[in-house]
Design goal:
The protein is of the alpha+beta class. The protein is about 45% helix and about 20% strand. Strands 6, 7, 8, 9 and 10 form a five-stranded antiparallel beta sheet that branches. The chain has a four-stranded antiparallel beta sheet with strand order 1-2-4-3. Strands 5-11 form a two-stranded antiparallel sheet.
C-alpha cells in the first residue's frame, strides 16, 4: 500500500510530496531484494545462491535489504505521487529517502511546477530593426580574404623576408641539453605570424637557403611549461627552402578555379560577395531585433522563477558548451586549465543567459496562450518532412532526435508568437 501526503511550499511553486511504500508492496520488494542478494552471497555450509532467508538475515541483518528494496519501489512511488497529486513537473524532480524500516520506505519528492506568469505589456513598444547597409570597403575586404585563400606559394631565391614561408629544421637547447617539444623538421613557418616565442621569427629574417644559425632567445615568464618559463635557450635553425605568397589576378584562370556558377568577372564576383554579406548582416540584425524585443517585453513580466528551472537550463548550456569544445578537440578539463577557471566559474558565467532563456520561454508561452497561437499536427508533419530532407535524414529518425512531433509543434508555435511580437511592436 502506498500513502501520499503533500506539503506545498507556496514560493516558486515548489511542492513536497511524501510517499510511503508499505504493506504487501514493501514485503514483495524485500523478497525481490533478498533473491538478488542470494545469487551471490556466500555463507559457510551452504552452496552459493542457496542460503535460506532466515540464515541470511541472521548473518547480515534484515536492514541489508532495505536500500535495494527502496531502489525497487522508487519508480512506483514517483508514479503514485504524480498520479495522485496531478502535478506536472517542469524540471526533473528531486527525491530524498526520508525513512527505512521493516514496515516500509518513505520518500519525499520535490516537484517544481510552472510558475504563474503575468505579461503586463507586449504590444506597442515601437521597436524597429536596424537598416542593413554594405559598403565598398567591406566588399573589397572580403574580396581580399578570398584572394588570400587562393594565394599560391612559390619558391623564391634570396633571403627570408617578413611574410615569407620559411621551411626550417630547428632544435632547442637549454644549458646545452635538448628539451622536449623543441625539435622540428621541414617545418613551415610564416614569418610574422608570431607562431614561435618572441624573437625567433625576427632572427630568421635575412637567412638564406642552406644557412644555419644559432638563435639566442628567452622564453616568456608566463610560458606554459614551468621548466622553460623565463629560461634562456638556444635554437639551432637551418633554412631548407623559402616560399613567398603570390596573389592571384582576377582573370579567367582564377574564376575557373573559383568554381562559382555564373561568376566570370570582377563585377559579378563583387555582386555575389555583396549578396553574401547582406544575407549575413540581415540574419545578425534579425537576431538582434528579436533579442531586443524579448528583452523589452521581459521588463514587463511578473514571474517568480524557481531556481531549479534556472539550474536545469545551466546544465543544458553546460552540455552544449562541452559538445562545442569536443568539436574543437578540447575537453572541459583542458578548458579549465587553459582559462585557469573551474566548473563553478563557468556555471556562474552561464547563469544570466540561463535565467533569461527561462524567462523568455515562460513569457512566450503565456503570450502564446493569450493570443491563442496554435499549430496543427499536419503543419508540424510538413515541417518535419522538410527539416528531415534538409538534414538528409529519415523523418522518423529526425523526429526521434528532435523530441517528437509535439516538439515540432511547440517550436513552430514559439516562432509564430515571436512573429506576432514583431508585428505588434513595429
Amino acid at each position: 500500500m502506498a500513502k501520499k501526503e503533500e506539503k506545498e511550499t507556496k514560493k516558486n511553486n515548489v511542492h513536497e510530496i511524501n510517499v510511503k511504500i508499505e504493506g504487501e508492496n514493501w514485503t514483495k520488494a524485500l523478497d525481490k531484494a533478498f533473491k538478488e542478494k542470494q545469487k551471490n552471497v556466500k555463507v559457510d555450509g551452504f552452496r552459493k545462491g542457496k542460503v535460506p532467508r532466515e540464515i541470511f538475515e541472521k548473518k547480515f541483518g534484515k536492514e541489508s535489504l532495505y536500500i535495494d528494496a527502496a531502489d525497487m519501489v522508487l519508480q512506483d512511488a514517483y508514479m503514485k505521487a504524480m498520479e495522485e497529486s496531478k502535478l506536472i513537473p517542469v524540471v526533473q524532480p528531486a527525491v530524498e529517502l526520508k525513512g527505512l524500516s521493516d514496515e516500509g520506505a518513505e520518500f519525499t519528492f520535490k516537484i517544481v511546477t510552472k510558475p504563474e506568469v503575468k505579461v503586463n505589456k507586449y504590444k506597442g513598444l515601437n521597436i524597429k530593426p536596424e537598416k542593413v547597409e554594405v559598403t565598398d570597403e567591406e566588399i573589397n575586404h572580403e574580396l581580399g580574404h578570398l584572394l588570400e585563400r587562393y594565394t599560391e606559394l612559390v619558391t623564391k631565391e634570396g633571403k627570408v623576408e617578413k611574410g615569407n614561408i620559411a621551411i626550417i629544421d630547428f632544435e632547442g637547447f637549454k644549458d646545452d641539453v635538448a628539451f622536449e617539444g623543441g625539435k622540428g623538421e621541414n617545418y613551415s613557418l610564416e614569418i610574422g605570424s608570431n607562431t614561435f616565442i618572441p624573437g625567433f621569427e625576427e632572427q630568421v629574417i635575412g637567412m638564406k637557403v642552406g644557412e644555419e644559425k644559432d638563435l639566442n632567445l628567452t622564453f616568456p615568464e608566463d610560458y606554459g611549461a614551468k621548466d622553460l618559463a623565463g629560461a634562456a635557450v638556444v635554437f639551432k635553425v637551418k633554412v631548407n627552402e623559402i616560399k613567398e605568397k603570390k596573389t592571384r589576378e582576377l582573370d579567367e584562370d582564377f574564376f575557373e578555379d573559383l568554381g562559382m556558377e555564373g561568376i566570370d568577372s570582377e563585377e559579378k564576383l563583387k555582386a555575389e560577395i555583396k549578396a553574401s554579406i547582406t544575407a549575413q548582416k540581415e540574419m545578425e540584425v534579425e537576431n538582434k531585433y528579436v533579442d531586443t524585443i524579448l528583452e523589452e517585453v521581459g521588463k514587463n513580466v511578473e514571474v517568480d522563477i524557481p531556481e531549479e528551472m534556472v539550474n536545469e537550463e545551466v546544465n543544458r548550456l553546460m552540455g552544449r558548451f562541452e559538445e562545442q569544445m569536443k568539436m574543437q578537440g578540447i575537453s572541459l578539463e583542458l578548458y579549465y586549465q587553459f582559462t585557469q577557471s573551474t566548473e563553478a566559474d563557468l556555471r556562474n558565467q552561464m547563469e544570466k543567459e540561463a535565467f533569461n532563456n527561462v524567462l523568455y520561454r515562460l513569457m512566450l508561452e503565456e503570450i502564446m496562450t493569450l493570443e491563442k497561437v496554435e499549430v496543427s499536427e499536419d503543419d508540424a508533419n510538413k515541417e518535419a518532412e522538410e527539416l528531415a530532407k534538409k538534414y538528409q535524414m529519415d523523418k522518423e529518425d529526425f523526429l526521434k532526435e528532435f523530441g517528437g512531433i509535439e516538439m515540432i509543434q511547440y517550436d513552430l508555435e514559439m516562432r509564430k508568437t515571436i512573429d506576432l511580437l514583431k508585428e505588434y511592436n513595429k
